[in-house]
Amino acid sequence: MVADLVLMGEWHPVAFSEEIQDAPIGRILLGERLVLFRNSASIHAWKDLCVHRGAALSLGKVVDDTLVCPYHGWRYDGSGACVRIPQQKPEQSITRQACAVTYESLEKHGLVWVRLRPSSSSEIPYYKEFEDDKFRTVFCGPYALNASAPRVIENFLDVGHLAFLHEGYLGDSAFPEIPDYNVTVTDDGIRSDEIDLFQPDPDSTGNSGIARYVYEVLKPTTARLMKTNPLTGDVFSILFSVMPVEERLSKVYVALSRNYAFDAPDDQFTSFQTFILEQDTLILESQRPELLPLDLQSELHLKPDRLSIAYRNWLKTSRVTWGTA
Length: 325
Fold this sequence. Notes:
The protein is of the alpha+beta class and 325 residues long. The protein has helices at residues 5-8, 149-157, 162-165, 266-284, 306-318; strands at residues 12-16, 25-29, 32-38, 43-47, 61-63, 66-68, 75-76, 82-84, 102-108, 111-115, 136-145, 183-186, 189-192, 195-199, 209-219, 222-228, 235-246, 249-258.
């Protein structure tokens, strides 16, 4: 596990809530192997390691609200304490050292979130559309990319590539200019002004027109995009959260919310998101350096890049080191 104290103290998505049912599953977050499981009390996230002989607890099973190691059958209760060692008599005491390494975990916005280090200032990113009954929210992913988490977030924030990489859908190379916009940066994150862009097919419905973009960076590896049709008031919102697996490997969890077209099939929107992200993946996995440069002199920048510039400066000020150079 790489010791980035900032990201270790942040909440990261590690699974969709519906993924965790009767059996434990394994994940890797910031290089740390995790086991996720559910008992009658809640969701749990622990180091994926039995303290007895180092077996992966994610290969075990949940029995009577305990997690059972697949190797020797040791049982751990919801607090992480070992409560049963089959190889010894039941009346024998169990050393307090026989316990799992536990991490904080919560369910919110249809996702399971984990953080590896307590932090009084860190909260799970707020996504208001998920709780708004005027919106329908669907999920897609996770998408695995051989790219660093900051590179993936910066690509999501980049308006300049839409007319070329996503031509015919999110942009048109005949209209590549980006209108001037400003960015507001606070300790809590980043927010762009409204950016009006012509898009041939902004949301898979095939209706071309102006899409009004507002970007927000909620956490170092979580961003939000709200696209509004200024003529109809239709809103298409995206929560885009990256799970940093290894420094050059990421998984992206996406929530899509809309306040229109409720009769349209959800997979129309999720398939479109998958198609767009596949186009992004080709470029992201080709970028060099693989780690995002925080020194602004190392690459060239234009006015339309001011959102990316703000993001790089914010990461530097926040002292994020994972996935950066």
